[in-house]
Design a protein that fits this description.
Radius of gyration: 24 Å
Order of helices and strands: EHEEEEEEH
Largest sheet: 5 strands, antiparallel
Number of strands: 7
Structural class: mainly beta
Strand content: 35-45%
Distance between the termini: 67 Å
């Protein structure tokens, strides 16, 4: 639980609306990025509002992360922005956004990330980064299957 992301609901009950603008150090979310790390603080902005019998937070988390390129394993830094939403009963004493922010960062991660769109990756023979220098190895030809392709089904008659 990050204390910076815990807000009492008394002001929301009284005014009906509270703006949220908080910067949280990257160390507060050590496990948020699966194959990398956060590369700076996480900025959380949004609003807390009183809706019916609930307190609702709607906003986003923004920052930078450092993740290894999927092809060549070079550390690559990029920006992220993730929506954050949470609803709790208005009778609660406080609202804690810590877990929702962490989950939104996790879900914002791309399946694959590349250092550049035309990344050549690692040589399959010597494992050198082919973006830095040409090692001279040729890519092996893909193996062809000796199994026959699927054939159309015979007519049922």
């Amino acid at each position: 639980m990050t204390e910076r992301l815990v807000f009492p609901l008394t002001e929301v009950k009284e005014k009906g609306f509270v703006a949220v603008d908080v910067v949280v150090p990257e160390g507060e979310f050590p496990e948020a990025v699966a194959d990398g790390e956060l590369a700076g603080p996480v900025s959380v902005k949004g609003s807390l509002s009183h809706q019916d019998d609930s307190a609702v937070f709607e906003g986003f988390a923004r920052g930078r992360w450092r993740i290894e390129c999927t092809r060549c394993l070079t550390p690559t830094e990029g920006a992220y922005e993730a929506a954050v939403e949470l609803e709790v009963p208005i009778d609660s004493e406080k609202i804690d956004l810590s877990d929702e922010v962490r989950q939104s960062i996790v879900l914002a991660q791309p399946m694959k990330i590349y250092c550049k769109p035309d990344c050549k990756g690692l040589c399959v023979v010597c494992r050198k980064n082919r973006n830095l220098a040409d090692c001279g190895h040729k890519l092996p030809e893909p193996e062809t299957s000796t199994r026959p392709r699927l054939t159309p089904r015979p007519d049922k008659g």
